[in-house]
Structures are given as C-alpha cells and as structure tokens.
C-alpha cells in the first residue's frame, strides 16, 4: 500500500463521514468528529474492502474510494447510535 492510496482512503472516508452527518442530522456528532471518525472508517474500509470492490467495479482506485466512503459514512452513524445519551431530566 502506497502513501497515495492511504491519503485517498483518509480523504474519501472523511468526506463520507461528513455526508453521513448532513444526511442524518439527528445522529451527527458534529463536523470535527464526523471527519475524524469518517477518516478512521475510510482507512479501515479501504484496507478491508478496497480489493473486493475493486474487482466488482473494475478499477482499483474507484473501488478503494467507494469502500472508504461507504465505511466512512457508516462509522460516525454507528458510533453516534451507541453513544450514551445524557442523563434524563428529573
């Protein structure tokens, strides 16, 4: 894996995380956390699923970008789902 592929995964994951925050405002963790979690998800998604989607799409770069963006979009939403809500008002 070269540096360019890692940067592509980080950027497309960060973009996916921010898109997920815009699409689902109720689960958005804010722009900073959406970007950080999206970049982490993009890096992991690109490493795990990039090769799989590369074969399906036929282009290694497109498969890498799409895998990173999809997982980058999902990770902030999953973390927000499991994040503990504030204490109920009494």
Describe what this molecule looks like in 3D:
The chain is an all-alpha fold. It has one domain. The chain contains 3 helices and no strands. It has helices at residues 3-23, 31-57, 60-82. α1 packs across α2, α1 packs across α3 (60-82) and α2 packs antiparallel against α3 (60-82). The chain is elongated and about 45 Å long.
- Helix-strand topology string: HHH
Q: Give helix % range.
A: over 70%
Average the pLDDT over all residues and give the rounded result.
85
For the record, give the distance between the C-alpha atoms at the N and C termini, rounded to a whole number.
53 Å
- Total beta strand runs: 0
Number of domains: 1
- Radius of gyration equals 14 Å
Question: Which stretches are low in confidence, meaning pLDDT under 50 for 5 or more residues running?
Answer: none
Tell me, what's the shape?
elongated
Strand content: under 5%
Structure described in brief:
This protein is mostly helical and 90 residues long. It is built from 3 helices and no strands.
Core attributes:
90 residues, mainly alpha, 3 helices, 79% helix
Topology:
Elements: H1 3-23, H2 31-57, H3 60-82
